[in-house]
Amino acid sequence: MVDPVSVSPVGDLHLQDPADASSRAASSHPAESADKLPSFCIALPTYNEAAAIENCVTNISSFLGTVPARTAIIAVDDGSSDKTWEILLQLQRKFPSLILERHAKNGGYGAAQRTLCRVAVENGFEYALVMDADGTQAPHFIANFFEPMRRHIDLVKATRYDKGGTVKGVSWQRYWISRAGNLLARMVMGLPITDFTNGFRAIRTQAWTRISTTERGFIVLIEEVYLAGKLGFSFAEVPYVLTVRQEEGSESKFTYQWSIYWRYLHYIFKR
């Protein structure tokens, strides 16, 4: 359960009753069905997603209503400067299984990932399925993760580049930079992954706690894969289709800079 007085290094402000967190984490699905699929939460790192977060949470909640397992949504607001947090609080009244955590200031994508891991473990979920909060990952692709989750794979990555995955509406420059980087990572690191830099993934929470990441930004994704490989984790991939974000007015600062690609190379060639 979420500690009602805990404060993370980046400052968790949202306080909640542990009993409330527990009740929000549980769904009404029959126990016999839940045994067939591990319990999991959808983990949403959010920063300045006021334009997209309502549709994102609503659509995911609708899909989770069809899933025969104990589920919830955990959203971490990483110090947004827009109305993201206020909208999340309103959504929590509509969707009781929405668990919220807030950073007092922006700590970066990596910091949000570490808070998501902590809250997922505290609420007893076997898997955390991490998605972007901008609506570019359709909820129906969540079902693709179920088979490897039933096999207790440690890290299941969605892929745009294999097994039927693709991208839509993405510039050719962005596509080929990403494609080349991921091909290089696969060749050098020798791991059975085609999409290293994709944040859409399911990770077994007990495995996640063994990974001590330090990166603040998107670099954490390849740092995570690097450490998982060193620890001998099991891997799997599932296909999905990436679409460009449709919402106008989003000010998300979970963005890429050229320096990030140099940091990717650090982990690709690290031994």
UniProtKB/TrEMBL annotation:
Keywords linked to the UniProt accession: Transferase
Mitochondrion listed as a keyword: no
Annotated organism of origin: Bradyrhizobium rifense
Record's compositionally biased regions (Low complexity): 19-31
Gene3D superfamilies linked to this entry: Spore Coat Polysaccharide Biosynthesis Protein SpsA, Chain A
PANTHER family for the chain: UNDECAPRENYL-PHOSPHATE 4-DEOXY-4-FORMAMIDO-L-ARABINOSE TRANSFERASE-RELATED (PTHR48090)
Protein name: Glycosyltransferase
Organism domain of life: Bacteria
SUPFAM superfamilies: Nucleotide-diphospho-sugar transferases
GO MF entries: transferase activity
Annotated region described as Disordered, given as residue ranges: 1-31
Domain Glycosyltransferase 2-like per the UniProt entry, residue ranges: 41-207
Pfam families: Glycos_transf_2
